Amino acid sequence: MSSDDSERAVPARSLETQAELTPEQTRAVLDLLAAAAAVDGQQPVSEQGRLQLRGGAREGVSHLLLSYGGELVGYAQLEDTDPVEAPAAELVVHPAHRGHGHGRALGTALLAASGKRLRVWAHGGHPAARHLAQVLGLTLFRELRQMRRPLTGLELPDPVLPEGVTVRAFVPGQDETAWLSVNAAAFAHHPEQGSLTERDLADREAEPWFDPAGFFLAERGGELVGFHWTKTHPEEGLGEVYVLGVRPGSQGGGLGKSLTTIGLRHLAGRGLPTAMLYVDADNKAAVSVYERLGFTTHETDLMYRTET
């Protein structure tokens, strides 16, 4: 080795944890996410995680920024807001910097920050993510399916609503409190959806995709009993069954299926060629309903956790 080689500076890996990102850091993370999505074919961080990049500090949420030679090469988000479940995390390494141990460094930091009580999403379940989970000693415990069906030439039977039920569109500034209450009840055992707050809802209402005309509320006697919130991804030609819920005690009678049909017809009317939705693989009843409606599995997100 020459003297030049021995004196050459080796880029240093550095990790910082922040409760709140600066605008510059937010832009750098969003650029990293976009680069990863372009290569991987799906977003490496969930919608909730992307929303939590902006708007200041949020209780229980921390951001881990991994730099190498002064360049941001990895990002992780840790959310410790569930009073029962272990903290949940998402992490991503820039495609140009993979294969150099950066993912393991982020994973190790997450384990330390969570006290080795950790749940981690692997969106798309890529082999590299599966390998990293194994290296970190994590085990698979949840599968979230993305299902799709064509909307072109959509033929679904007319929705038949239970007696006394009417459907109307969501009214911003009027329906938030009632919707949050029914959403929490309908998803009481769902680790993400059931815990949405006023701030979470306001974040989504402020997004460019939000359209109250595609947010359907089912009422009986003036009381909210179910809903179907649709979402559009026009650049991808996708319409999404974003959230579909029925208040406990109002299940049965075909309300969920009727709301699904109403939403799918709305999305088809927007000229979108394909519908998508997410459902837990172990929710056999819901998977069966969606399969009967013509949905098939497109890809699967995996969640790993430390042994409990």
Describe the fold and architecture.
The chain has 9 helices and 12 strands. Helix 4 (102-113) links the parallel strand 4 and strand 5 (119-122). Residues 1-7 have low confidence and may be disordered. The longest helix is centred in the N-terminal third of the chain and has 18 residues, at 23-40. Helices cover 30% and strands 30% of the residues. Strands 1-2-3-4-5-12-6-11-10-9-8-7 form a 12-stranded mixed beta sheet, with helices on both faces. It has helices spanning 3-7, 23-40, 47-51, 102-113, 127-135, 176-186, 198-205, 255-269, 284-292; strands spanning 13-18, 61-68, 71-79, 88-93, 119-122, 139-150, 165-169, 215-220, 223-233, 238-246, 274-280, 296-305. The chain is globular. It is of the alpha+beta class and 308 residues long.
Helices and strands, with pairings:
Elements: H1 3-7, E1 13-18, H2 23-40, H3 47-51, E2 61-68, E3 71-79, E4 88-93, H4 102-113, E5 119-122, H5 127-135, E6 139-150, E7 165-169, H6 176-186, H7 198-205, E8 215-220, E9 223-233, E10 238-246, H8 255-269, E11 274-280, H9 284-292, E12 296-305
Write out key terms for the chains shown.
single chain; 308 residues; alpha+beta; 12-stranded mixed β-sheet; 9 helices; 30% helix; 30% strand; disordered N terminus
Q: Helices and strands, in N-to-C order?
A: HEHHEEEHEHEEHHEEEHEHE
Let me know the average pLDDT: 91
Q: What does the radius of gyration come to?
A: 22 Å
Q: How big a fraction of the residues is strand? A: 25-35%
Shape: globular
Q: Which structural class should the secondary elements be placed in?
A: alpha+beta
Poorly predicted regions:
1-7
Helix content: 25-40%
